[in-house]
Amino acid sequence: MTRRPPAATPARSSPTDALLPIAGGEVFLCLHFNVHGVRLRAMVDTPPLAARLREALRPFETPADGAADFLLRIRHSHERFPDAAPEGMTEHWRGTLPDGPPVVCHRGAVEREVLLPGLARMRLSGCGADMRAAPGADGWLSLGCILPALCEFLARRGHYVVHAASLSAPVDGAPRALVLCGPSGVGKTTTALALAHAGMQLLTDDATFLFAPEPAAGPLRVWGLPRPCKVHRQTLEMMPWLRRLCDGSEPVADEYLMELAALAGPRAHELAEPAAVLLLEPRNPRAHRLRPLDRVDAIARLINENVRAADPRAEGPAGGAFRALAALAARVPVYALSVGPKLESLDQAARPLLSPSR
Predict the structure, then answer these.
(1) Pick the CATH number of 159-354 from 2.40.128, 2.10.25, 3.40.50, 3.40.190
(2) Distance (Å, whole) CA 309 – CA 107
(3) How far is the C-alpha of 123 from the C-alpha of 263, rounded, in Å?
(4) Is 299 in contact with 326 (CB distance < 8 Å)?
(5) Is 70 exceeded by the pLDDT of residue 258?
(6) CA separation for the pair 356, 358 (Å, rounded)
(7) pLDDT (tens digit, 9 = 90+) per residue, 114-125?
């Protein structure tokens, strides 16, 4: 069963909004964002589409501050978006969005395309992205087009997305973070929510960004985008305090859509030093179990979960992601964690890992 497209927050004007006429008579809203030094300029043709972009990047919105590193253009279109490779491109990958429609990736010599047949498409170039959505298809833009474009552009500046939850807490006046990795369904969201309820700052439940600047000896940092997440009915039964965060929509396959922004708090987007990586394993009925992993095993598991090269030899952003994850496993302790039955005691097992003396 396909979940309905997520609803956008009501479109409201902002002090940074500006109307920009374009050749051909079109008029766009012009928005500006500075994501940890990566400057984005967005031209959007309607307030609802602007709301979609702000859902992902609101903490980073700024007044115009000089030349942008990348340009995003987002507009409605009456194109049919047929399921066919554009001229000069070939199909690279085909699948489906989580609980959503099919998605197809095409690649050419210079440009790449993400296509949601019949709904939307996003064309990536070296300096920006052009996104177009059919009327009524706005709901799939965030996950299908906007987020992939952001991940691509941020990776070109040393910010690599990791399929992981992350949380932070102040240690000696500076934020230090735990990074929770593992395949879908192993319990990243449940584990992260339990630690957040115990007082840690939730950064994100599944889209952690690892900042690994050049040269390679530079400090590693993590930050997150607290996007809406899915919570299983059993998780709500274990943690009933979560019900107030559900968006009110009907569950799909016993999963509820929940807004994390309120729980994450205002500091979720700030940079934190990674203190430990926890690779989640299946839960057990007895007690929380932590065991250190050797570096080779840790790197192999992190790479297997996170590096999907769009270029065959893992050059460019894919190669950068490989090196960043290897650096993370080399510099930061990595543990396997099997969560026991008492979620309320998980903080006692995990919080000591934030200490820099470990």
Answers:
(1) 3.40.50
(2) 12
(3) 34
(4) yes
(5) yes
(6) 6
(7) 999 999 999 999
